[in-house]
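Pinned message: reference record for XRE family transcriptional regulator
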Amino acid sequence: MQLKDYLVEADLTYDEFAKQIGAANAGVVAKYVAGRRVPRPQFMTAIAKATDGKVQPNDFFPVEAS
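Predicted structure (tokens):
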């Protein structure tokens, strides 16, 4: 599941989610959502935990079907 979709489903703001994962601010989450930044390993783990596994590290790396 994409992080953007999870945040909509969970009715969370970027700021609320940033606090849940220990990110500095909402801008960090906005960059993750927009694909302008890939989370570092500690944030990937925090995101997976905060989303109960709905958003996984592989969700940040698009793979095209062949």
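Pinned by admin. Summary line: Helices lie at 3-10, 14-21, 26-34, 41-50.
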